[in-house]
Amino acid sequence: MAKNKFQVLFEDNHLLAVNKPSGMLTQGDKTKDTPLNDLAKEYLVEKYQKSGEAYLGVPHRIDRPTSGLVLLSKTSKALVRLNKMFQDKEIQKTYWAVVKNKPAKSEDTLIHFLVRNPQKNKSTAHKNEVPNSKRAELSYRVLLSLDNYHLLVVYPKTGRHHQIRSQLSAIGCSIKGDVKYGFDRTNSDASIHLHARSIQFIHPVSKEEQKISAPAPVDDPVWKACMKKLKGA
């Protein structure tokens, strides 16, 4: 479960960008646990003293065990435009991933064909196209190395189910804590060391360029060690 509520990173009349803690759902599911979008609606009702329920659109989601930036819309106009922008790949997303095994190449572009298994909530990455597969592409770069782990910056070019998790696993670089995709043990809080770091896009209403970044979890020793080394680099 999430230890704390979200952190507001950016807000204007049309958009709300927040830093989601690991363990929190973006939207509700069969578990009935309180999701981010419900908490964000409560935040808007309280902040603006609304008499009824606040409007909130969810143009994209990140996995429950993943932390980081989620962009929400406060107006239907913004939601329609953001949906199209995500679909047309006009929003550049950046992730941080901590892995135990260093990739063979310090930077590379990975292309796989993913097959999703809804029953297991898992995607399998194949090198070649297979039936019912969807093409997935990402680029990565090794940002820094600790004694036991390596921090990668990842740029997904497509938005497939569990794409980063399955593609990194396919090259032998499972994300720390991600036992579903091959890591040897879970993290104590059931998180995985995948963090939605930033997004860059043209504002759907004002048309101004926006870049929003989310700090990594501060209460985790591995993330803390990564950030300390990053600042010292």
Question: What features would you describe in this structure?
Answer:
There is one protein chain. The chain is of the alpha+beta class and 233 residues long. It has a single domain, classed as Pseudouridine synthase (2-Layer Sandwich), CATH 3.30.2350. 19% of the residues lie in helices and 32% in strands. The protein has four helices and ten strands. The protein has helices at residues 36-47, 76-87, 163-170, 221-232; strands at residues 7-11, 15-20, 67-73, 92-99, 107-117, 122-126, 134-145, 150-156, 194-202, 209-213. Strands 1, 2, 3, 4, 5, 6, 7, 8, 9 and 10 form a ten-stranded mixed beta sheet that branches. The chain is globular, with a radius of gyration of 18 Å. The two termini are 33 Å apart. The mean pLDDT is 94.
Net shape: globular
- How many beta-strand segments? 10
The description of the largest β-sheet is: 10 strands, mixed
Question: What's the CATH first level?
Answer: Alpha Beta
The CATH architecture name reads: 2-Layer Sandwich
Number of domains: 1
Percent strand equals 25-35%
Number of separate helices? 4
- Overall mean confidence score, pLDDT: 94
**What is the radius of gyration computed over CA atoms, rounded to a whole number of angstroms?**
18 Å
The name of the CATH superfamily reads Pseudouridine synthase
Q: How would you classify the helix and strand content by structural class?
A: alpha+beta
Order of helices and strands: EEHEHEEEEEHEEH
Span between termini: 33 Å
Helix content: 10-25%
**Poorly predicted regions:** none
